[in-house]
């Protein structure tokens, strides 16, 4: 087994002012979450220039803008995965989504856009878990409804462009009921974690449904190749890299902690931050707050109205003052969205300079952001139209992928 960092995964994680966990993301600065501080409290590692240089060197191509711009900013044991890639040894990618709403918002796209880049770059199998069971337990949803939402969300995920021969998407409710291997993996994990640990990591207490308390074993099981014999030909020790937003880290701190006891590799992780709410970077876009989010189903007009009306601006009160003092891009939501979605580095830098100097007005900046986001959403809607129920079924059927083990 490759050498792995000494387990610091389960040390107490305490957050004083910013709150980042699977259920809430909140901070008190309009500049957004202090991600450097989060790395320290979580005990993960910063993605620094040296690591980015290494990725570019071994893949022979520039890294994705989301990585270059620090939106994917933290990792655990990413070097182990890069070592494997250099030695031509196998690993797989695992990401997921909790299907709690009919339509996704722009923030939901980020991990999938980046995961597609990872899949294209490293050419490895990808497993996408849809936790319809999780949403049944946590939300006011029936089993049937959350299972249906999993299929609907799969369409948006597939529309990101994943390769069908190399990607397995599953709903927990469906896969667990037909895979002995997955259930066995869950069981083994359930025997490694006691009530006290589950409560401490996730904040459960004696009033929590017992389904919630054992749910982490389900999200953890997907990080072990033993749960997918059809893909890995029964190989139980294929290492895994998980791209995810950093609020999911508690699940994987737990997973990494127990992995050695199951004689398996600790999964590696690559973490993103959050796309801020329209109203400002103190919270993230949230599907349950309609005016905080731009949905993938929004019309061009809705996108325009939302950005013009709600996007928090770093501009000044009057044009004269703005021209004189310039805008504050560090709190400006339209600018922040451009850092996620405008591909051209030079153009982005020009916008930053012009906004800061006062040459570019808030209205003009918003105009640019509206155009870019309208384009991305329209392209997505076009691709989603082609994702039929038939295509979804193919991605979700239990099968071998285009890799030999
Ligand atoms: N719990 C996640 C959510 O609510 C879904 C999920 C399952 C996930 N497995 C994952 C997310 C792995 C990222 C990586 O959205």
UniProtKB/TrEMBL annotation:
GO terms for molecular function: ATP binding; tryptophan-tRNA ligase activity. It comes from the Eukaryota. Gene3D superfamilies: HUPs, Tyrosyl-Transfer RNA Synthetase. Keywords: Aminoacyl-tRNA synthetase, ATP-binding, Cytoplasm, Ligase, Nucleotide-binding, Protein biosynthesis. The keyword ATP-binding applies. One of its GO terms (cellular component) is cytoplasm. Pfam families: tRNA-synt_1b (PF00579). It is found in: Cytoplasm. The keyword Transferase does not apply. GO terms for biological process: tryptophanyl-tRNA aminoacylation. Its EC number is 6.1.1.2. Belongs to the class-I aminoacyl-tRNA synthetase family. This is Tryptophan--tRNA ligase, cytoplasmic. It comes from Dimorphilus gyrociliatus.
